[in-house]
Structures are given as structure tokens and as C-alpha cells.
Amino acid sequence: MSYIMVDIESDGPIPGDYSMICFGAVLVDEKLDKTFYGKLKPISDKFIPESLAISGFSREETKSFNDPKEIMIAFKDWVIENSKGRPIFISDNNGFDWMFICWYFHHFIGENPFGWTSRRLSDLYCGIEKDTFAKWKHLRKTSHTHNPVDDARGNAEVLLLMKNELELKISLK
Known about the structure:
The chain is an alpha/beta fold. Helices cover about 40% and strands about 15% of the residues.
């Protein structure tokens, strides 16, 4: 199994009504050097300015981004090319990130290479600490910049720390 850490930025709270603006993915291995970055043009006219602002892009800039179908096909190909065995989707907030990625995969290309499930980094850490309120974000080495590749890499660093120093039993291929 290969774990792929994903982070997304959007212009609103749900896919369909709002748009995924960009996302990043990092194959979780000791190097963290295999990454994917996609910028997607909006799929609706609706957006929340405060949500869009987090991405660092203006609405005008997003209109010149790539066709979502093309990006999702390229991401699927990247996932398959970089995975050994079944790819596992993992993120900091998979309730949000997974919702957008899964919806975009099914809406634009009719399939999701991750299947039907995802994992949440925060829950793994809380389980190790036996504390549902355990804080972990200070363990990132890469700064949280809202560039989704940076954010995914920082989260992948925490997963590696959990494996290497906190003895999380996980197979990273």
C-alpha cells in the first residue's frame, strides 16, 4: 500500500456548488520528493471571497486555471504511477479534502483510484497519544503556507515521525 497525503484549497464549503481551486499531493516515503500540484478553473459562479482568499488567488486568476477533467485524469495517472499496491488517501482534514477529491474524481472521470475510503492524520496521532484532544501540528517541519503541496508535505512529515519515532505500525511502500 502507498499512502498519498493530500491537501486542497477551495472557494467554498462543498463541491458542486463551489469549486476546488487547487490541490497538492505527496507520496509518503522517506524522500517526500514525488508530488502533484493541480490548479482547477471554477465549476460554478458561486464563491465565498474569504474562502478563496486562503488560496492566495484572485477570482480572475482562477478563471485561467486548467480544466478540472484534465487535472483529475492527470492526478489519477500520477496516483497509479506512484503507488505500489492500493493507494491510500490521507489528509489532515479528510472530511473536507476527501469530499472534494472524491466528488471531482467521480463527477469528471467516473472513478476514484483511492476507492471508497480515506484516513485522517489527526485521528492516527490522537490514537497514538490516547488523547482525542492531542495537538500535532507543531510537529511539521515544512511551514503551513496554504500552498497545498507545502501543507501536504508538512503533514507527510508528521506521518513519517509517527512511524519512525512514535512506533506507528504502518507499511509505506
